[in-house]
Amino acid sequence: MNTLKEHLIPLNRPVNGYLLTLSCLLFFFMFVCTPIKLSAQISPQFYDYSHNHLPWYTIESDHFLIHYQEGSSRTGQVASRIAEEIYRPITDLYRYTPDRKISIVIRDREDFSNGAAFFFDDKIEIWVPALDTPLRGTHNWLRNVITHEFTHMIQLQASMNRTKRIPAMYLQWLSYEDVRRPDVLYGFPNSIASHPFATVSIPAWFAEGSAQYQRTGLTYDYWDSHREMVLRTRILDSKYLDLTQMGTFTSKSSLERELVYNQGFSFTIYLVARFGEDILRELSVESARGSANFARVLEEVTGIDGNRIFKDWLDERTDYFRKAVEDLQFTDSNIIHDTGFFNFYPVISPDGNTLAFLSNQEKEYVRVSLILKDLDQPDTRLVTIDHTGGLESLTGQKAYKVKHGMTSNAALDFISAKFSFS
Predict the structure, then answer these.
(1) Bridge-based pairing state of the strands 56-60 and 5-8
(2) pLDDT digit string (tens) for 144-169?
(3) pLDDT tens-digit profile of 349-400?
(4) What is the tally of helices (H) and strands (E) in the chain?
(5) How far apart are CA 31 and CA 411, in angstroms?
(6) Of 86, 150, 153, 319, which one has the greatest count of Cβ atoms within 10 A?
(7) Pairwise CA distance, residues 177 & 187, whole Å
(8) Phi, psi (deg, nearest 5) at residue 157
(9) Degrees (nearest 5) of the Cα angle 306, 246, 153?
(10) What is the rounded radius of gyration, in angstroms, for the C-alpha atoms of the chain?
């Protein structure tokens, strides 16, 4: 039986970061690990306010500390029960238990859905509103996101090749200009080369694929028809990510970043079906040996070249999807809008002259705007804030973002729901 204790605590303590540098001077290496208080001059939109106008409370159970604010007591209790229920299945799979209780911070101050695992700090943050995205189906949000983030916590800590107090090290070489003044010891640095040594070498697709797979018996997330649609269209159009591209979120559009999750989930399901569920732990442990080439990690664990395994999965999915669509009958159609990968809710005006819909146009991210298209003319136009009452009609954060150039002038940058003519 879990032991629950509830008490008032402050959560606005300063956070220390650790910076470890490795410098090379005359073939001698000097390691310096210095705790520093992190600070920077950043835009106010990126400040993470703690909203301390409401008191914080903590529920303490056997393995977790659930932190929540006044008004979120029931959510905190539900989160505590979920966390304890999934603790043993996940830790047993990876044969790893944290060295202290995990803090889960419940956030219910924004209309925003997400979860984050700070695996060096033993902290998870959960945004309470349920995720609603056209790229995935509907799932039990709290059970899904808590299990997802806790899987991150356990898998990534199990795959570390050094202590949590050392996130990374790097070897650095510097070259300086010739000294030009007698009162200057060194000239200005004109060359620098750095080589990092990461504490965690898990590629993005494997981390996210494992966190979505969770483990056998935990069906809080599963392969749904939305994910199937995304993967099917990308594979049949030969626009999938290769094994290397799946490894990072950088230099990708919003849809391509979702593909890291999407393909990683499908590939993880394939690995488990082919090699057994223990493959998740074995790959995590092998990656702790420090190899940055995950294809090599796959080969060390399975005895088969990692790129060969990826091709086997791709061939299997390609054959499956081709059979799935071979009997489809397509009707003739005329394309009236061919830009954007998010185009939703088309509605024709009562007079039949205008088509209205939401689209992200040619943007690389998913924020949509209202588009009005004259069916007799090829041009389109956005509905701007000027059309909906002007800047004075906006309040709070919306007005701040527009005034300071943090968003476009499109009125529906702020919503993604259906609409109607009036």
Answers:
(1) antiparallel
(2) 999 999 999 999 999 998 888 888 88
(3) 999 988 888 888 888 888 788 888 888 876 777 776 555 666 666 666 667 7
(4) 9, 14
(5) 53
(6) 150
(7) 5
(8) -70, -35
(9) 95
(10) 25
